[in-house]
Amino acid sequence: MEIEKKFLVSELPEDLDHWKASEIEQGYLCTDPVVRIRRMDDQYILTYKSKQGIQKAAGVCINQEVELDLTRESYYHLLGKIDGVLIEKTRYAIRYPSGNQIYKIELDIFHGHYEGMVLAEVEFPSKEEADQFVPPDWFSENVSDDFHYSNAFLAANSNELSHPSGSKETE
Predict the structure, then answer these.
(1) Residue 54: what are its φ and ψ, rounded to 5°?
(2) Can you give the pLDDT at residue 168?
């Protein structure tokens, strides 16, 4: 099970170069349930996500999630079958203390079609910890409840969204 919160980012942290970065591209074969392929550096992954049987929680994303390894060849074979646009981003893994816990913030800086968008996700072991989380001041709005910021929606609806600047994207 995956329990996370997703936030818009108002400014990048000053020490960003201090943290590990990975180059990610991901495409969606299906969005309900989510079936995703991902390349993260030289690792290839097939992911299945579903909300089936999961109780909704305000301000928190909760999903069933299964990840399986793919070969490079399988990834590139499936890449030709994705719906919508390929999501491209650099992900920084940032350790962040909150209360007496240390959380991993996954800071995503988008490239390609969504150049300029920046989102941060934090995963939690329980809904209670998610509810008690105090985000850093460089986070802005909690968009966990807004499906417009899910990567699956971004991939499938690239012509319908406004970019962070507020301008409508057209191709």
Answers:
(1) -105, 130
(2) 35
